[in-house]
Amino acid sequence: MRRTRSGSLARKLMSVAAVAGLFTALAISSPASAATSPAAASPAAGPGGVPRTVVLDGPRLALTRLMVRAGAPQLRGPVSSLKAQADSYLTQGPWSVMDKPQTPPSGDKHDYLSQAPYWWPSQPATASNPQGCPYVDRDGVRNPEVDTITDHSERGEMFNAVYDLTLAWYYTGDPAYGKRAALDLETWFIDPATRMNPNLTYTQGIPCQLDGRGIGIIDFSQQFTDILDAVALLNTGAPGWSHSDNTAMTGWDTQFLNWLMTSSNGADEAAATNNHGSFFDMQEAALALAVGRPGLAKSIAETAETKRLDVQLAADGSQPLELSRTLPFHYSTFNLLALTRLAMIGQKVGVDLWHYRTPAGGSIFKAVDFLVPAATGTASWSYPDLNFQAWAATDVIEAAADAGDHTAGKALPDLTQPPGGEFWLLRPAPEQLDPVTS
């Protein structure tokens, strides 16, 4: 289904909202208003309850909320769809790493555990070789046995639930959404009986070969920044989420960041040159910003110019390291998801990755533009692909358009709407839209 021009109309609406926001900002920053605002009690919220998000634009979210509360017609559909998703999560979960039937090699079920998705047994199972070892890589073909370890799937459900519930609470004010998001976070990260240890030592292991790999850090990094932003939204006054909850969550984040920076798995993933390296930087920079280390976040974003963009982006906008995969369109959009979100983090610490040009002439904008013809259907995708989905690129094109890319902006009316619906106006940061497990 092709999109209408509601995207451009909504952008005009947001421009009107920005003007209105100038007057609102004066009101919400006044001493009288601050004294009565529930969000004012949270030290993690900005003036007037503006969320101190690490990827999403906090002031923009606050303006969008004003327009939702005012009944802006362009936002009614997205809010209705968001509420429907959040409603489904009110009776699911909470999830915990303690749910899995297996015990990690550490002997502690609080440690997260997952198995490499594309590795398969090469031999028939026998009494002497029950797992069919050795395992071999079949890129892009998912082995269903990995789903017997529930941490990966439950982590994904928890991430999605927390994000949708939190956004629904923020825009509607319904306390049920905030309370349920808080419960899900407390269960996974805070409650001593159910919490996950802040490490990813045993991710994407390969039976008979490795207990865990640095490559498995992407289990978290592709979406954990949503959790960081959700916490920032809850900190503006959500029921069920307390100051002590935020302190505990910040402590977990701090320990996790330290593990990423000091562990061998972290070092391996940081050294990756493809999308894994991009997501590692994105997650590490977001965590640094969330725990009060903006200098570290800035250093990561600055280093990404030469460490990521120079290496990954060709002069014509292609991403050779991603095009070599069996799912080249997915991985091209996937890597750009990380790079565009890192560019959004960079904006908060004074680093402009959007307009950086590599020595070869590549850039994030050109990499997005490279995908536009296939995403809009004006040209076919010319690379062999196991599962081409044009709408996988929708969010990264939205992000580039927001950042000033003219080609991306012109493409917006011709994009195919993702099957799950259009939520850009409510959470304007790229998400992985196709269901490929990476």
TrEMBL record:
Gene3D superfamilies in the cross-refs: Chondroitin AC/alginate lyase (1.50.10.100)
One Pfam entry name: Alginate_lyase
GO MF annotations, alphabetized: lyase activity
Signal peptide (UniProt feature, chain positions): 1-34
InterPro entries for this protein: Alginate_lyase_dom, Chondroitin_lyas
Keyword Signal belongs to the record: yes
UniProt keyword annotation of Ribonucleoprotein present: no
Domain Alginate lyase residues, every copy: 96-381
Keywords tagged on the record: Lyase, Signal
Protein's name according to its UniProt entry: Alginate lyase family protein
